[in-house]
Amino acid sequence: MAASPGLIRAFQAVAGIVALLVFVQAILAGQFTYNEEDLKDVHEMLANVVFLFAAGQLVLAWLTRESWRYKMVIWCAIILALTAAQIGLGYGGRDEPDVAAIHIPVGVFLFSLTSIVAMLAVMDERAKEALKGA
Questions:
Q1: What pTM, to 2 d.p., does this model score?
Q2: What are the residues whose beta carbons fall under 8 Å from the beta carbon of 133, sequence distance 6 or more?
Q3: What is the CA 33 to chain-centroid distance, rounded?
Q4: Which of 69, 83, 86, 98 is deepest in the core (most CB within 10 A)?
């Protein structure tokens, strides 16, 4: 059974939102590192929003798995795991500078991965085929 075009579009939208939220996280991190200490709380709260959207993205990837040949399910599971790890590293980095040193490159990787998934969600040929009839 093929995934409905509505679910595919929802996955595409959520994938874009997750990439955008991770990008905003990087902006907030740069801001509170150099200027605005109070943005650290916003960064922390937004991390939870990113986690919720990443979880939703994984659910949508599973519901539309036939359109992606399971590759999106795997990538979205990795994104969710990395997001959870990032939250833990963020809290751990408050007291341990070594943990904070890991938090930054993992965040860069997470932004790269979410951007690639968002791009693939729009460009995947099987998804395009499924959307033609919509």
A1: 0.89
A2: 5
A3: 22
A4: 83
